[in-house]
Amino acid sequence: GNCGVRPLTSDEERGMTRVVGGKNAEVGAWPWLVSIQDPSVSGTGHLCGGSLISTKWVLTAAHCFAESRNISAMRLLIGATQLTEPGPEAQVRLIKRLVIHKEYSPADQSNDIALLELNEPVQCSSHIQLVCVPNATVNVAQLKTCYVAGWGATTARSQKSSDILQEAKVHLINVQICNSSEWYQGDVHSHNLCAGYPEGGIDTCQGDSGGPLMCKDNDADFFWVVGVTSWGRGCARAKRPGIYTSVKHFYDWI
Q: Gene3D superfamilies given for it (predicted)?
């Protein structure tokens, strides 16, 4: 069926251009966004983001589960924009199974990708949709209109997650540039994507991990999840853009 569509969002460019440097997302703007919540985290319990890729599976980052968390106590909030007031359209699920990539390495964050199986399927609606997963034929580098979204920190220093989903437009940056001497000096893997702005100012931050880097298809009005938020040096710094796990690279694994 259809994936990557946003029933509640009109097509005109909205607003500018927390995610740092972003803005509040409209209700239903990113209907595949999932808040992964752990009761041991203070406040809303928000730990990481995720993307709904089927009615039973959420795509996220392996490093979210590095501290051997108690997954039986965690919950997944789906279809919400504001964590403290999810609204009647939101659905809550538990984690039936966590699948972390066998080659995930905490030391260098390689293969930073994981899947969560829901305890029961979600019902899709105007507020809950699946995002499209790109296979080898999708030319990701050519996609022009890309966004990040998440409930992570809105300033590099706050470390506190945002109550309202933040979104920002970003640009894909060539990994060769990203790995150059003034940038990340070779620490970015071939299965990563780099996105943001050379001058900084807009970026994912703590709490956005596991959430999507999303690009609109160039020929049609739907979105691909091209990346999973993985790491970065600080947030929104110049020549230190966000690093994402390339979803296309792991299509067969998914």
A: Trypsin-like serine proteases
